[in-house]
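Contributing new complexes? Match this layout with methionine sulfoxide.
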Amino acid sequence: MPVADRVEELRVQIMELADSCNTADELMRKMVKLLHERMLKYNWVGFYLLEPGAQPPMLVLGAFEGAMTPHTRIPLDQGICGAAASSGQTVVVDDVRKDPRYLACSLETKSEIVVPIFVRGEVAGELDIDSHFPAAFTPEHQDLVKHCAVLVGKKLEVAGR
Ligand code: SME
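Output block (do not edit by hand):
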């Protein structure tokens, strides 16, 4: 199946999943599993959420699929994760070796995408995906991952955690 069709099929499944989940926690758990299982190049898929009330702000690892990471808590001034959360912008890194911000999770990781999750206009967390393949996150993958982050943001808004 061409990549575009696979991405489209997965987008539909993710929307159905969002409809069927009652809480954001359930959606995040099932979403990381589905993305990790279905996409060959999504080798680590996980959520980081801002710790409520933490000063300085701190990203805390939530649901994830893939190898355990040493980075379970990330301050906003560190890593690609910190850059995405502090700027509110999606960060796509085609070659992590060339990005000095990169915090290594696995020696096999070649590229990464981090998409912020917004709740009522504020960054509440992010969806982070690592790939063993360079430049894995083409524009159609970026759209898919952003769509996932929007669905989780909506669920966090509506149902709480
Ligand atoms: N690479 C991330 C750290 C998290 S691990 O990829 C799971 C970063 O640079 O912020």
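Reviewers usually confirm one structural detail per submission. For this one: The beta strands are 44-50, 58-65, 73-75, 91-93, 111-119, 122-131.
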